[in-house]
Amino acid sequence: MPDAWRPSLRTEDGHRIVGFRGRELTSAVGEFSDAGVMLADAAATGVEHLLLSPWISLVPVGAGPDEARLVCRVQNEGLARLVAAYPGRLSAVGAVPVQDPAVAARELAELMAVPGLHGVEIPSSVGGRYLGDDFFLPFWEAAAGTGAVVFIHPSTRGFGIPALDGYYLWNSVGNPLETAVTAAHIAVAGVLERFPGLRILL
Question: Fewer beta carbons within 10 angstroms: which end of the chain, N or C?
């Protein structure tokens, strides 16, 4: 029996379904989860190199510190193997348990020593805290010190605003809104002045 903290994968009627922390996630379509398909699609448009990131729904911000560290490490190891299988064509950013910034800082330092991994993906907020909060300073210090790319991804499905429930608006409208809000928090809180070497991808 697999460890309870591990994401599971099954295929049903040709569709990939990922189970994680009691949820079933159905958007792991082939063009987003099959490296061969992604590279072929990219090559058809003249793109020769792809940067991969974890699926934000599998970044375990609601987990305890031990479980979160394990889940992040499993994803990072998998991404590193995938990058190694396609030399020169793939790079990746990994995951760290940013809900514990001190642990995230240590994990980030280890991750940056892995060939092919160039940074991390983190959610735009954790437990109601936005990324400009002083709580995250140990993480930002480590990110600046290691030169890591920090990819910030929306994670609240449009802040739960009812008007964004339909027509995929939680994504097309909510995600840019959430990105703008977290960027404003980072800027106004002075994070960029404190760590001018940060490499942030929104």
Answer: N
Residue 186 CB contacts under 8 Å (≥ 6 apart), including other chains: 130, 131, 132, 192, 200
- Is residue 30 scored above 80 in pLDDT? no
Instruction: Please state the domain extents for the chain.
Output: 49-201
This prediction's pTM: 0.90
Give the separation between CA 129 and CA 181, rounded to whole angstroms: 12
Token reading at 2: 């697999």
49-201 folds as TIM Barrel (3.20.20)
Over its C-alpha atoms, the chain yields an Rg (Å, rounded) of 17
In the chain, what percentage of residues exceed pLDDT 70? Answer: 96
